[in-house]
Amino acid sequence: MSKQYETVIGLEVHVELATKTKIFCSCSTAFGGAPNTHTCPVCTGMPGSLPVLNKQVVEYAAAVGLATNCTITQNCKFDRKNYFYPDNPQNYQISQLYYPICRNGYVEIDTPAGPKKIGIHEIHMEEDAGKLIHDEWEDCSLVDYNRSGVPLIEIVSEPDMRNADEVISYLEKLRMIIQYLGASDCKLQEGSMRADVNLSVREVGSDKLGIRTEMKNLNSFKAIAHAIEGERERQIELLEMGRQVIQETRRWDDNKESSHAMRSKEDAQDYRYFPEPDLVPIIISDEWLAAIKARQPELRTAKLIRYKKDFDIPDYDAQIITSAKKMADLFEATTAICKKPKKVSNWLMVETMRLMKEHEMEAEDLKFSPEHLAKLIDLADAGTINSSVAKEVFEQIFLEDIDPEKYVEEHGLKTVNDEGALRSTIEKIIADNPQSVEDYHNGKEKAIGFLVGQTMKAMKGKANPGMVNQILKELL
Q1: Which residues of 159-257 form beta strands (DSSP E)?
Q2: Is 112 exposed, middle or buried (0-12, 13-18, 19+ CB in 10 A)?
Q3: Residue 322 resides in a domain
Q4: What is the pLDDT of residues 137-156, one digit of tens each?
Q5: d(Cα 167, Cα 164) in Å, to the nearest integer?
Q6: Structural domain boundaries, residue 341
């Protein structure tokens, strides 16, 4: 009988913080930019340059720690992690080993078996390295230090996850918390959120951990799920053949859907960590911590409870709207203006989601203003425009954030509520379609739909559908 295996997974998640400037200097952290233009003597590791800590980095790290139920280390400090690599200009990275800023937290995820707590071992602050670009054409490697010194937090989980679904749930939960806090945009494709997966397998029932490998270079949820599946199978195959799993770092290749060994895994002593002599310890006073706590925004769980109470919208709507902070902000701001929560939620859930899918956009990319959506809802509600015109106008708001009132005026899209004009159009339609009139009189209810359609066409879609139906029934 073949053995049953269990997968044990822990994650190291790196998140680039949304500060305007780097962690130890005043260079810009903006993504992109010509190579080596966001640099100075500090972030390129020039001799004699000294780091100065960016206060906002500490506040963001503490905010993430509070939101993930961690204990904040109020007396923490930085350490030097020594390693030699071309993208690491000082030949060391300033990180935190001995006293990380946050520890012993957790986030709760939903699993088929119910809620599950995933432990967070620690969160520490550190600086990012530069980026090596391998130029195949010139057969050389170039280095861009724009990213060097961009502030990171590394969130180290406990080995509490057992499959790819739990890993994705955990990452989605972290991403949502961090986006709600405004601490990072967490865009996997731009590398502002990166996850390394530590995975081992063991026989079911065993409490001893197997030998783990670490997989890097995972920049989408799909790649993470595939890499977990692939690595699990690879390790089980080795064990079934009576061979050993080697502790190593592996690189995932998304195109080939397979991983290969990069280097054997080092231990902390290989890095010769020692306290960073150029930076003073960080003392987070009770007052400072209280101020950070007081600024914590309302997170999703609290929003869900409040939406039910204040806005009386269905659970399903609330779940979707709060799944992205940008969506929740739009919902609240628009509702505050027009006081019609259910209608706002319908526009966001139906038309907004449809157009986002069509244009392959994330909620963060939405550009339209709550004022314009509220105006549109009011126009449709007042019967100034009908529902098909409203959809057409909304598409323009979605793309260009136009003012709906002006747009309706300029394009002559107002609903025709003039009974005289409608009546004469409908009389002409009835005269032109004797067959449909006869069908209607013979009990075919559907025939009236055809006549409504013809009237709307004649009125270029701008007639009031209720009025058209009423007049048609009266004349027939």
Answers
A1: 193-203, 213-216, 248-253
A2: exposed
A3: yes
A4: 888 999 999 999 999 999 99
A5: 5
A6: 298-410
